[in-house]
Amino acid sequence: MVNELSGKVAIVTGGASGLGQGIAEKFVAEGARVAIADIDDEGGAALAAALGDRASFHHLDVSDPDAVGALTDSVVEQFGGLDVMVNNAGVSGTMHPSYVSDDLADFHTVLGVNLLGVMAGTKHAARQMASTGGSIINISSIGGIQAGGSVMTYRASKAAVIHFSKSVAIELAQQDIRVNVIAPGSIPTPLLASSAVKMGADAETFTAIIRSMMAANRPLAREGTAEDVAEAALFFATDRSRYVTATLLPVDGGTIAGPPRPPAGGAAPSSESAPDQPTAEDDLVDTVATTADDVDSQASITHA
Ligand SMILES: NC(=O)c1ccc[n+]([C@@H]2O[C@H](COP(=O)([O-])OP(=O)(O)OC[C@H]3O[C@@H](n4cnc5c(N)ncnc54)[C@H](O)[C@@H]3O)[C@@H](O)[C@H]2O)c1
Fold first, then answer.
1. Please, what are the domains in the chain?
2. Which end of the chain is more exposed for a tag (fewer CB within 10 A), N or C?
3. Structure pTM?
4. Residue range 242-254: average pLDDT?
């Protein structure tokens, strides 16, 4: 596929890193002009420079609806229109061993970025697309579909993104604006390390535990990549999905469908390695398994 987005203008929030970076790269490769909007000035500017003339960086905190409105205004002024809005910026929640011990201190931050940011992005993109139509792509998470025994604030924010997006899609369909949701899962990005930092864990150990849990719960053998998510975003951005709106597409290697069959003659991975006496690493495994929703490990693999 080449130049599927030729002549199109897109905004990608959270485009300086991880999945947003992959989407920005894909869209530029397909001929779009892409505005990367992020709080990470250094990373965003470097990526825009690397992507060349068709990319630009714009500082944006998506949790400020007025700033989101100003950004869409300025992109339309600069590029002459807006065809695709990817509301991707997101943050992980702070991890706690249990919900009762969750002080809810990050509630406003997580909801502000993950939900208000998506709602503001949708509103201001729709305002710009009112006479032309367009495609709005909101990034949720399989943690917003699958209930689990942890990171309630993050899960709530991502579940709300799905419900909001389907609801607003009904209204915006009248203006030929399509709204669809991608729910990634099992894709290591810098978000994973940020989760470790927030729970005070060693990033390397934490990442290794999470990746092995994701592998145990994922039907497709390999880990996902930002490119995998970008392919889904490209589908929703182009006319290939012209009759598709208000849908939810997991991009998770099949994780949300359920875990694969355990190896013949063996027990499930979680019980296979369970020692009689808990160790410090087991405590981390427990906490991670019940809280590591940034990469959407499933509660079913919680260390027993
Ligand atoms: N990686 C996964 O497996 C996975 C799974 C499910 C959902 N997601 C979702 O995908 C999206 C991208 O996550 P990622 O894994 O690429 O993480 P990431 O940390 O690599 O990227 C997130 C980006 O968002 C930016 N950002 C954070 N707060 C912002 C704000 N207030 N305003 C503007 N930009 C802000 C960050 O600077 C960063 O560039 C998030 O919404 C995340 O919840 C990721």
1. 9-298 (3.40.50.720)
2. C
3. 0.91
4. 98
Pocket of ligand 1 (CB under 6 A): 13-14, 16-20, 38-40, 60-63, 88-91, 113, 139, 141, 184-185, 187, 189-191, 194, 295-296
Q: What is the pLDDT of residue 283?
A: 52
φ, ψ at 286 (rounded to 5°): -60, -50
CA of 294 from ligand 1 middle (Å) equals 9
User: Could you tell me the distance, in angstroms and rounded to a whole number, from the CA of residue 183 to the centre of ligand 1?
Assistant: 12
Is 90 in contact with 14 (CB distance < 8 Å)? yes
Amino acid identity, position 105: A
